[in-house]
Amino acid sequence: MSETINKINQNNIIKQIRSKYIVIKIFDNLKENKLLDIIHYNKKYQKLMNKKLKDYKNEFLKIELEIIPKKNIYGHFINIFDEKSRGNFHIYFNDNNKEIDSNIITKDDKVTKIKIIIDHKIKSFFGLFFACSCIKKISFIKFNRNDINSMKGMFGNCSSLTEINFFKFNTNKVKSMAGMFCDCSSLKVLNLSNFNTSNVIDMRGMFGGCRSLKEINFNGFNTDNVTKMGKMFTGCSSLKALDLSNFNTNNVIYFYCMFEGCRSLKELNLSNFNTNKATNMVNMFKDCSSLKVLNISNFNINEKTEISELFKYCSSKLNLICNNELIKYQYEYDKLF
Questions:
Q1: Paired residues of 100 in beta bridges
Q2: Which domains does the chain have, with CATH numbers?
Q3: 3-class SS of residue 286
Q4: Second label for 32, Cα 20 to 30 Å away, from 127, 185, 284, 307?
């Protein structure tokens, strides 16, 4: 950020917070733009004016989310793997002010809402909610950090999860989203339009096993650096249409089983797919039995055997568009070369 912009922001915020010393320290020591945006005038921050710099840092770096558990299903609602990490999660039941030191919902708790605050020491969300079958809904209320590096398996096997609100969700530095939503069997809609995936390398199994999923919003998805898409949509048996025309697959090596078991899929737009670097495309469209037309003009297919490996158990009525020519799939490989 330029010196001029720094000066303007600093002057504006100095007017809003009485302690000039604290403000100058914040600007000198905290270089994150995101932190500057949330220092606005209100009574809460007026009361904090005499706090030390580290108190401001901790306050502004926290992530806050809200969980609504499914009635009559009890168990773990977050995965805290060790005691050291446990101290960085602040958990409240039913919006009470009292912090609890429990990671388990029991019948006696009569819980309707859980508030969780995750502080700045947690850098990875790997398996954070994995197999938390009691969670029905998750909403991210505050997410001002941009240093989370992994979301691998983050919601994996959350079988009761029906809704995730990503209105405030920072994925700027995330490198792995492998299995992020795998086996979320109750999810029907996912809006990922505000995801920044420019640094993501691994998307393997990202939606694998989401058998109820009918709609995914990929607007704004950036796959420039992704190298792995194997099993990305495996078992998404309720998806009827997918438009992946904005996907850049120039660096993707693994496409194996990418759409395997998408039995309801009738429309699939892969018009910009580039498979030049692919080393494994086996069973990419296996058992896509409802697919009638597919454009593979940009696919790099060098051997006749690859066609049969791509389309195992697909309909005999499947037509392939290759080099702008419509070709029936059924064993007519010779026309493709």
A1: 91
A2: 3-59 (no CATH), 175-337 (3.80.10)
A3: coil
A4: 127
